[in-house]
């Protein structure tokens, strides 16, 4: 229990005073308080000790004693003989010495070497490159770190491994600036690389800041991944028929991987990043294309001297036309014209049928009126005579003939 109480009190002192130190080398964060203890300081009288400072604020050794006033609120001696710096800054870096005489007349000295630090914000890569060219020096980007002290260093990494500038394949141009007001540093590191043939198509670059202090973790940037293009990749051409990769359902697509390297290397195909289960061939033929064939295709070339090379990506998509079928709920342009023509013909036939029906109805109605029952016997006899007179005439006409 006593040990836990002592540990809690120690943590409280650290929180209140920043750091209670008694070693020779002290590291303190800028803007925080710092307290230095004086070994052998007598409880009474305090006149038997003094502090001497040689820092960026003094031209020579500055002497402080318990009787003196606080030194411009920069440092003051506490009742227990310790020296307190309420807010330490860059100018407080230097040497601190305390000399005390205990009650037995023995003189005890304490020496401290104080250094200060300030971590910068997370570094970042500005103006990152999206493409690099094989065999041509290309700028990858500029790594920037702001607001650090001491200056620290910037370093580059390629695919997770340290990238050592050799002046040929990779060069670095560094710049360091110091803010005149705060004294903090801004670092810049510009990386230029010359991609080699056979290298990765999408290398990963990152940058990190390392402080000039022990046991301090590096700060890393977000990675960037430019695309490498060059002569050997331009030599791999992917030609697709029909051009553009758009084909109707049931159509045919032919992709040809053209390679300038000799002898002809092994060529296989990938779709949406996955290898296709086909034998190596420079030609990929897709008959009767359906929805399952839609996707992004590449040809991958493997050559002993050039390594692995990939072509550009080609997207195969299905287009619906009026002649080759339309999806439910949609009609193409030619389909709309055919539909309109059909509706027009059906409408015309419907109108004609209606007119014919009306004419036939009226004709039947007229005949019905002529065949009404006669009102008296005289009308009936007259009608019979007319019918008898019409029959001989009809017989004569049929006998005469043409």
TrEMBL record:
<dbReference type="GO" id="GO:0032735">
    <property type="term" value="P:positive regulation of interleukin-12 production"/>
</dbReference>
<dbReference type="GO" id="GO:1904472">
    <property type="term" value="P:positive regulation of endothelin production"/>
</dbReference>
<dbReference type="GO" id="GO:0050930">
    <property type="term" value="P:induction of positive chemotaxis"/>
</dbReference>
<dbReference type="InterPro" id="IPR003598">
    <property type="entry name" value="Ig_sub2"/>
</dbReference>
<dbReference type="GO" id="GO:1900745">
    <property type="term" value="P:positive regulation of p38MAPK cascade"/>
</dbReference>
<dbReference type="Pfam" id="PF08205">
    <property type="entry name" value="C2-set_2"/>
</dbReference>
<dbReference type="GO" id="GO:0070374">
    <property type="term" value="P:positive regulation of ERK1 and ERK2 cascade"/>
</dbReference>
<dbReference type="GO" id="GO:0048143">
    <property type="term" value="P:astrocyte activation"/>
</dbReference>
<keyword id="KW-0732">Signal</keyword>
<dbReference type="GO" id="GO:0042995">
    <property type="term" value="C:cell projection"/>
</dbReference>
<dbReference type="GO" id="GO:0003723">
    <property type="term" value="F:RNA binding"/>
</dbReference>
<dbReference type="GO" id="GO:0072657">
    <property type="term" value="P:protein localization to membrane"/>
</dbReference>
<dbReference type="GO" id="GO:2000105">
    <property type="term" value="P:positive regulation of DNA-templated DNA replication"/>
</dbReference>
<dbReference type="GO" id="GO:1903523">
    <property type="term" value="P:negative regulation of blood circulation"/>
</dbReference>
<dbReference type="Pfam" id="PF13927">
    <property type="entry name" value="Ig_3"/>
</dbReference>
<dbReference type="GO" id="GO:1904597">
    <property type="term" value="P:negative regulation of connective tissue replacement involved in inflammatory response wound healing"/>
</dbReference>
<keyword id="KW-0325">Glycoprotein</keyword>
<dbReference type="InterPro" id="IPR003006">
    <property type="entry name" value="Ig/MHC_CS"/>
</dbReference>
<dbReference type="GO" id="GO:0071639">
    <property type="term" value="P:positive regulation of monocyte chemotactic protein-1 production"/>
</dbReference>
<dbReference type="GO" id="GO:1900272">
    <property type="term" value="P:negative regulation of long-term synaptic potentiation"/>
</dbReference>
<dbReference type="GO" id="GO:0031175">
    <property type="term" value="P:neuron projection development"/>
</dbReference>
<dbReference type="InterPro" id="IPR013783">
    <property type="entry name" value="Ig-like_fold"/>
</dbReference>
<feature type="compositionally biased region" description="Acidic residues">
    <location>
        <begin position="376"/>
        <end position="394"/>
    </location>
</feature>
<keyword id="KW-0812">Transmembrane</keyword>
<keyword id="KW-0472">Membrane</keyword>
<dbReference type="GO" id="GO:0034116">
    <property type="term" value="P:positive regulation of heterotypic cell-cell adhesion"/>
</dbReference>
<dbReference type="GO" id="GO:2000439">
    <property type="term" value="P:positive regulation of monocyte extravasation"/>
</dbReference>
<keyword id="KW-0966">Cell projection</keyword>
<dbReference type="GO" id="GO:0001650">
    <property type="term" value="C:fibrillar center"/>
</dbReference>
<dbReference type="GO" id="GO:0150003">
    <property type="term" value="P:regulation of spontaneous synaptic transmission"/>
</dbReference>
<keyword id="KW-0393">Immunoglobulin domain</keyword>
<dbReference type="GO" id="GO:0032731">
    <property type="term" value="P:positive regulation of interleukin-1 beta production"/>
</dbReference>
<dbReference type="GO" id="GO:1901224">
    <property type="term" value="P:positive regulation of non-canonical NF-kappaB signal transduction"/>
</dbReference>
<dbReference type="GO" id="GO:0038023">
    <property type="term" value="F:signaling receptor activity"/>
</dbReference>
<dbReference type="GO" id="GO:0005055">
    <property type="term" value="F:laminin receptor activity"/>
</dbReference>
<dbReference type="GO" id="GO:0044877">
    <property type="term" value="F:protein-containing complex binding"/>
</dbReference>
<dbReference type="InterPro" id="IPR013151">
    <property type="entry name" value="Immunoglobulin_dom"/>
</dbReference>
<keyword id="KW-1133">Transmembrane helix</keyword>
<dbReference type="GO" id="GO:0044548">
    <property type="term" value="F:S100 protein binding"/>
</dbReference>
<feature type="transmembrane region" description="Helical">
    <location>
        <begin position="339"/>
        <end position="361"/>
    </location>
</feature>
<dbReference type="GO" id="GO:0046330">
    <property type="term" value="P:positive regulation of JNK cascade"/>
</dbReference>
<dbReference type="GO" id="GO:1904646">
    <property type="term" value="P:cellular response to amyloid-beta"/>
</dbReference>
């Amino acid at each position: 229990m006593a040990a836990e109480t002592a540990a809690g009190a120690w943590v409280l002192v650290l929180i209140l005073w920043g750091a209670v130190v008694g070693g020779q080398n002290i590291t303190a964060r800028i803007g925080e308080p710092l307290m230095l203890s004086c070994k052998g300081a007598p409880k009474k009288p305090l006149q038997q000790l003094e502090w001497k400072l040689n820092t960026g604020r003094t031209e020579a050794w500055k002497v402080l004693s318990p009787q003196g006033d606080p030194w411009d609120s920069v440092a003051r001696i506490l009742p227990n003989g310790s020296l307190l710096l309420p807010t330490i800054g860059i100018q407080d870096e230097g040497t601190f010495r305390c000399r005390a005489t205990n009650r037995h007349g023995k003189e005890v000295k304490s020496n401290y070497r104080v250094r200060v630090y300030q971590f910068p914000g997370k570094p970042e890569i500005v103006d990152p490159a999206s493409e690099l060219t094989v065999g041509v020096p290309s700028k990858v980007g500029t790594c920037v770190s702001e607001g650090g002290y001491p200056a620290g260093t910037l370093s580059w990494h390629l695919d997770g491994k340290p990238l050592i500038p050799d002046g040929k394949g990779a060069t670095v141009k560094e710049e360091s600036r110091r803010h005149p007001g705060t004294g903090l540093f801004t670092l810049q590191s510009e990386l230029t690389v010359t991609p080699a043939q056979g290298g990765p198509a999408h290398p990963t670059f990152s940058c990190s800041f390392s402080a000039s202090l022990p046991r301090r973790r590096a700060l890393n940037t977000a990675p960037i991944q430019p695309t490498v293009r060059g002569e050997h990749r331009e030599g791999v051409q992917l030609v697709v028929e029909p051009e553009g990769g758009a084909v109707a359902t049931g159509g045919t697509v032919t992709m040809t991987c053209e390679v300038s390297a000799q002898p002809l290397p092994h060529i296989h195909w990938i779709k949406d990043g996955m290898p296709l289960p086909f034998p190596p061939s420079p030609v990929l033929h897709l008959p009767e294309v359906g929805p399952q064939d839609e996707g992004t295709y590449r040809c991958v070339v493997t050559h002993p001297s050039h390594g692995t090379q990939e072509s550009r990506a080609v997207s195969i998509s299905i287009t619906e036309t009026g002649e080759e079928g339309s999806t439910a709920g949609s009609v193409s342009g030619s389909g709309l014209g055919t539909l309109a023509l059909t509706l027009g013909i059906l409408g015309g036939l419907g109108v004609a049928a209606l007119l014919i029906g009306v004419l036939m109805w009226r004709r039947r109605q007229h005949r019905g009126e002529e065949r009404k029952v006669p009102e008296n016997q005289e009308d009936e006899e007259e009608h019979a005579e007319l019918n008898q007179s019409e029959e001989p005439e009809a017989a004569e006409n049929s006998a005469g003939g043409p």
